[in-house]
């Protein structure tokens, strides 16, 4: 499967619909799933979109990591799943976002007419561009963190 990369600016229409970028729709078609799962990110003011097959794998891993008889684990799973929504793009590649999801994107910033899709390998995120710009690392910090993670991964620390 191809990976979701880059960033693509979009605008929502008056009904709250956004176009999934054509490049991302082509990758979604490769997954042979017409539906996507959208959920609020647990750490950031953005929405994450998963091809349904990728979502199912992630949820399966989470279910196996949790004890279904443990009340705390049950609550974790319920809360995680309650922030998710199954979406099916229309024939033009648009999905409808609920008002509460637009509110999630602002994180105390002014509501932006523009939004930005950001590729994340097997999924993609939707951000308010101002919020995303504030969260992004400076180029030097990004390089240092990637270098550090790669050293750890290859055991050269």
TL;DR of this structure?
With 157 residues, the protein is of the alpha+beta class. The protein has helices at residues 22-30, 52-65, 71-82, 99-106, 129-135, 139-153; strands spanning 7-11, 17-19, 36-40, 47-51, 84-87, 94-96, 114-120, 123-127.
- Into which percentage range does the β-strand content fall? 15-25%
Name the poorly predicted regions. Answer: none
The number of helical elements comes to 6
- Give average pLDDT, whole number: 92
Give the arrangement of secondary structure elements.
Elements: E1 7-11, E2 17-19, H1 22-30, E3 36-40, E4 47-51, H2 52-65, H3 71-82, E5 84-87, E6 94-96, H4 99-106, E7 114-120, E8 123-127, H5 129-135, H6 139-153
Antiparallel strand pairs: 1-7, 2-6, 3-4, 3-5, 4-8, 7-8
Account of the protein in words:
The protein is an alpha+beta fold and 157 residues long. It has helices spanning 22-30, 52-65, 71-82, 99-106, 129-135, 139-153, and strands spanning 7-11, 17-19, 36-40, 47-51, 84-87, 94-96, 114-120, 123-127. The strands form two sheets. Strands 1-7-8-4-3-5 form a six-stranded antiparallel sheet. Strands 2-6 form a two-stranded antiparallel ribbon. A hairpin with a 6-residue loop joins strand 3 and strand 4 (47-51). It is globular and about 50 Å long. It starts with 6 loop residues before the first strand and ends with a helix.
């Amino acid at each position: 499967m191809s990976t979701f990369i880059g960033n693509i600016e979009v605008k929502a229409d008056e009904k709250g619909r956004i176009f999934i970028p054509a490049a991302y729709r082509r990758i979604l078609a490769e997954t042979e799933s017409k539906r996507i799962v959208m959920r609020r990110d647990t750490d950031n003011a953005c929405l994450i979109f998963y091809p349904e097959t990728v979502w199912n794998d992630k949820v399966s891993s989470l279910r196996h990591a949790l004890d279904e008889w443990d009340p705390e684990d049950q609550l974790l799973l319920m809360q995680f799943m309650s922030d998710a929504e199954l979406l099916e793009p229309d024939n033009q590649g648009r999905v409808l976002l609920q008002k509460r999801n637009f509110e999630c994107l602002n994180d105390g910033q002014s509501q932006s007419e523009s939004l930005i899709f950001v590729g994340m390998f097997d999924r993609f995120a939707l951000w308010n561009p101002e919020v995303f710009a504030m969260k992004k690392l400076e180029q030097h910090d990004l390089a240092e963190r990637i270098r550090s993670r790669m050293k750890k991964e290859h055991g050269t620390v």
